[in-house]
Amino acid sequence: MSDEEEVADVSLEQLVEDSPQAKGFDAMVSADVLQSVPVTLSVEVGRTRLKIRDLLRLKQGSVIELERNAGEPLDLLVNNTVVAQGEVVLVNDRYGVRLTRILPSEDRVEKL
Predict the structure, then answer these.
(1) Predicted TM-score (pTM) above 0.90
(2) 73: domain CATH number?
């Protein structure tokens, strides 16, 4: 099994259990309860900063250059916190993300 396949097999329970904040917390909240909590999942292709005058000049067909280089992994965010990185894939005429790396729990907790 490749590293990419191992990353994709990480469960929500493993992500939560690895968190230092979860120690002692699991007695109060079961994994079943946590699994029913809705979260916002988003994928960030890149960012840039514009002055308002440049923003107002945008029109259909304008191109906005992003800070991320082509080929770099995309960031997967849960509630605006980066938790993983991946690459765009096409699945049955829809976009998807193949996870290539899950950030260590210490990094995720620091960003909360």
Answers:
(1) no
(2) 2.30.330.10
